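Researcher: Quick sanity check before group meeting.
Model: Go ahead. Protein one:
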Amino acid sequence: MAADRLEQIQQRSQARQPGEEPGGLQQVEQMVYAYQGHLVFGHSESLGGLLVELYFDRPKLELG
């Protein structure tokens, strides 16, 4: 995936107007953010396309 196309995807995922229905990627982002996670966009070296990594913070265990 070309660097300029990757940048377009990143910008598009963050540029929603108030009252506009979210697209598929924006819906995924909303769900990920609701669970205190985040997305990282990149280029897949092995497949040659878009790579989207999802990260979620694990809660710390309270040891008694």
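Researcher: Fine. The other one?
Model: Protein two, sequence then structure:
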Amino acid sequence: MPEASGSGLADEADYSTFENKTGLADDMKFLARMPELCDVTFLVGETREPVCAVKAVLAARSRVFHRMLYQAPSPQRKKEPPPRENKIRLFLKRSSEPLLNLQNAAQQRSGFTQQLAPIQEPQPNQHHTLIIEEFEPDVFRQLIEYIHTGCVMLQPRTLLGVMNAADYYGLDELKKACSGFVQCCITVDTVCALLASAERYIQYKCTKSLVQRVLEFVDDHGNEVLNLGSFTLLPQHVVRLILAREELRADEFAKFQAALMWSKKYYDSNQTTPLKDVIGNFLEYIQFHKIPTNVLMNEVRPLNLVPHEIMMNALAYQADPTSIDPGKLSPHRVRRPGCSMSVQSSVDQRGSTTTLSSSGSDAGSDQKQHSGSN
């Protein structure tokens, strides 16, 4: 009887993929926070704050960490072969061996033999302790959290440090995420925090582009930024940089008030320096002749902080603009070719330093000699 022919359907296995990435991230975060489960401890920053991690995870996610933790440093030079012994020295050595053997036997009988512990090679699973000075503890802790869990909470206060740390350790995806977050995190409320953190990481290449974008934002929102309370937290040379920018869209009296607010904050903690001397560091960047006369007489003059000559020149210019040389009114606001405010490297008595300052000839007391750009 002929067999019935039919289309034999092969049994296909039904596969289903289940993922629980959230649970995995939570478990890995727990792992990184348990020192007894980790095998490497980083002492981070000036305070040497401990940050624990798992070496295998770091090495799998970052080639930089892999080289740091698992690859032995290459020798500086090859070991030279031991010098050949001449026949006389070899004869003396062999002749003395019986005597040395007798002495060793005597020491063993008298109980004075000292046993030397063998030198143990470092084990690959031993606990490492490394010092990290390049980044702050909060920044480095966020970096370690991202490496272990694949996620991290970006915030303006540590954004610049995390971005540079991601670039430093070869974490390109995190670096791109930080760069994208910059677009939405530069606001009036965060701009001063970003500028303050730029001082800490100014030597890294990711900082320069971000600083320029932040300064451009400051230019467009000058009056709002100058009225912020956080403006007093900026370093003095950064305040000078902002006030001296030609592109800054702010009225001159707002600039004077910002300089006064910063100077009072500084004077409260450093009363050895007179308030008049502190605010004197910023007056050269303020065009007092553009402040209305009634404001000069009612708001600025009673403070007795602005030199008499500056006040008289401003009032004289408002009465007759041709009577005063513009260079005497604002010598550091006259536009010169090749002058721009940006990030530069400078050199001082302590060595090479990179700061936010001016690259033109009107940098005031912050002007220093160039040593090249990082």
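Researcher: One line on it for the slide.
Model: The two ends are 90 Å apart (CA to CA).
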